[in-house]
Each structure stands twice: as C-alpha cells, then as structure tokens.
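User: Before I run my own analysis I want an independent prediction to cross-check against. Here's the chain; please return only the structure tokens and, at the end, one sentence I can use as a sanity check.
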Amino acid sequence: MKKEKNENLIAQNKKAHHDYFIKETYEAGIALTGTEIKSVRARRINLRDGYVQIINGSAFLENVHISEYKQGNRYNHEPLRSRRLLLHKKELARLAKDQSALGIAIIPLKVYLKHGFAKVLIGVGQGKKKYDKRETIKKRDQEREIRRQYKI
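Assistant: Structure tokens:
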C-alpha cells in the first residue's frame, strides 16, 4: 500500500510482523459510534490482541480495545465490542477462503485516518514458528551491522 500525504497514523500493531508472515493486506473502513471515533482520534486504541473474524459474509474486528471517551457520559461505548469492517464482496469472499485455511490468521496491522474516516489495514498472516522468529531477528541484526560499517 502506498502512503498518502493525508494518512494520519493512529495505532500500529508492531508485534504482528514479529509473529506472522504477512502475505496480503487490505484496507477496510470501520463502523464506529460517535464516542468511538472521538477516542480513536485521541489515539486511545490498542490493536495488540485483535483479530478479524468472518461471520455470515461480514467481517468483524474482534478484541480491539478502544477506550471510553472521557466526555461521553451515558452514551459511551463498550471498549471491547465487535466492530463491523466495511469491505467489498470480493474481498470478503477472499478473506473467508483464507480464514478457512489452517494456520492462517487475519489481523489488524494499522489504524489511521484517511480523508476524515477511520481505516484499518488488515493483513492475512501465517504464524511463525520460534525458529522463524529467531531467523528474522538474526537477519535484522546482520543488516544493522552492515549499515553501521558503511556509515563509518
């Protein structure tokens, strides 16, 4: 995905790239209530344990914590409720097919504002084994060492 100038990053799931090989990414809108969007704009969102589930042809963002809005009084939202994702039918069909495969997870990678609307970048990822994670860390350290030597 290309970065645009209007893209305003709100939250990022850094652990996702450590735990999964990300094969494909999709951009989806999120159906939020009034107090939820205000909390998102205040950067009060946590993606760490979140995942996407396809139920009856609709995608839902599960286990993503959006804190209650401080000035929300009785109209506040529930922090861990399911939130519907807005995707095209073809994308939903592809995600449903991917979700049915063994070892594949659909996870949120980033939440950002685009033209005033909250968007989430979701990734189709395959879980890494422990040795894969070690390999990734080793490769990153080697690249850092090479950059450091060229810098001197």
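Sanity check: The mean pLDDT is 86.
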